[in-house]
Amino acid sequence: MSGKNTKQRQFGFGVDVGGTGIKAAPVDLEKGKLAADRLRVPTPIPSTPEAVATTIRVLLDHFDWVDKFGCTLPSVVQQGIVRTAANIDQSWIGVDAHALLAEVTGRIAWVSNDADAAGVAEVRHGVARKHNGTVLVATLGTGIGSALLVGGRLVPNLELGHLELDGVDAETRAAYSARERENLSWVDWADRLTRYFRHVEDLLWPDLIVVGGGVSKEASEWLPLVRTRSPIVPAELRNNAGVVGAAVLAIENLENLGDLHAHDKHKTARKY
Ligand code: BGC
Q1: Domain presence at residue 137
Q2: Are residues 64 and 111 in the same domain?
Q3: 161 lines ligand 1 (CB under 6 A)
Q4: Contact 184, 192 (CB under 8 A)
Q5: How far apart are CA 192 and CA 32, in angstroms?
Q6: Mean pLDDT across 95-105
Q7: Could you tell me if the CB of 114 is within 6 A of ligand 1?
Q8: Residue 106 shares a structural domain with residue 137
């Protein structure tokens, strides 16, 4: 995204698809902030690819966004192909999400894993801004999402929530949903997180760990109790990280491919 002579685009658009809500907003790519209040609508039930894509079209129309956009899914996504589906309908598996969204919305989309988008947002514009080392971003919600950035470059689709802890998927023991389900105190939950992050650290040795997800709002309650080797800090962009990161990844990936579809020619006047 740098280079003095490169024309930089100022606005993008991000959509963050979660198990219960879909959030969308135009994004100021220079500031790494939403350029207008975001809109959140419930995720359709069932959350089939067609139903979600139709909701996304409605959101894009609401903002009069006609250009390319970025979108997250709680899924492993390889070059647009959805490989897993956590908290969304299983019929997403195998779908070419780029093709589906192009067909249903009439716009070009870049689809990424939700935690990857949050990680990119934190490293480009958040608490790990310009960090040149190895940054691990973990989102603690229903599951555990993970993103690894090395020198600012994303290693996509890292699925560290599924490492084994106590003989089960780590996220079933240490995600925020486990604290709620088992009524854990902050101290007990922090102990689980310590064990989880120590395990991750044994394998990856990050220079910095960033924790996101809704519970990062209350970080002062529990983060000081988590004993990692590396510094561990709360995410800065919080609930907007997915939307901002989706927009950033779309521009970084689609413009790197060249403006194949020459959409710029057809851009209409923009409100943002
Ligand atoms: C999924 C990840 C996702 C995370 C957060 C996990 O269960 O496997 O792909 O990033 O949940 O939604």
Answers
A1: yes
A2: yes
A3: yes
A4: yes
A5: 33
A6: 98
A7: yes
A8: no
Ligand 1 in reach of 34 Cβ (< 6 A): no
Q: How far is CA 112 from the centre of its chain?
A: 7
218 with 172, same domain? yes
Closest to 118 measured CA to CA, from 147, 151, 144: 147
Residue 101 shares a structural domain with residue 140: no
Q: Give the CATH number, domain containing residue 220.
A: 3.30.420.40
Question: How many angstroms separate the alpha carbon of residue 154 from the centre of ligand 1?
Answer: 16
Domain presence at residue 201: yes
**HSE of 99 in the Cβ direction (CA atoms, 13 Å)?**
7
**What total of structural domains would you count in the chain?**
2
Q: Is residue 48 part of a domain?
A: yes
Show the tokens assigned to 257. 């491919």
Boundaries of domain holding 78: 9-116+240-266
Amino acid at 141: G
Confidence of residue 111 (pLDDT cuts 50, 70, 90): very high
Token digits of residue 93: 């598996």
Ligand 1 atom at minimal distance to the Cα of residue 113: 10
Cα of 157 vs centre of ligand 1, distance in Å, is 9
Query: What is the rounded distance in angstroms from the CA atom of residue 1 to the CA atom of residue 31?
Result: 13
Residue (of 49, 14, 44) closest to 29 by Cα position: 14
Distance 271 CA to ligand 1 centre (A): 34
**Whose CA is closest to atom 9 on ligand 1?**
75
Residues of the chain by 3-state class (helix, strand, coil), percent to 5: 40, 25, 40
Q: What is the pLDDT of residues 207-254, one digit of tens each?
A: 999 999 989 999 999 999 999 999 999 999 988 999 999 999 999 999
